[in-house]
Design a protein that fits this description.
This is Abortive phage infection protein. The chain has about 60 residues and is α+β, with helices and mostly antiparallel strands. It has helices at about 5-10, 25-35, and strands at about 20, 40-45, 50-55. It is globular.
């Protein structure tokens, strides 16, 4: 997987809609997102084969 912090920033900034994380990269990826203040905005959806697809939930607009 390419630079994980860069991928997370692209997801948060809306440059990409989702990140597919392999089971080999899962713990490294998760470790980085749980350190973030906006951790609860990340949604991980488990896939067959141990992959997880992460999306970033934008703030609700009022």
């Amino acid at each position: 997987m390419e630079n994980i912090p860069e991928m997370i920033n692209k997801l948060v900034n809306g440059e990409i809609k989702k990140i597919e994380v392999s089971k080999n990269d899962f713990y490294e990826f998760r470790e980085l997102i749980v350190e973030r203040e906006d951790f609860k905005r990340f949604r991980g959806i488990a896939q067959q084969g141990g992959k997880v697809v992460y999306e970033y939930l934008e703030k609700e607009r009022s």
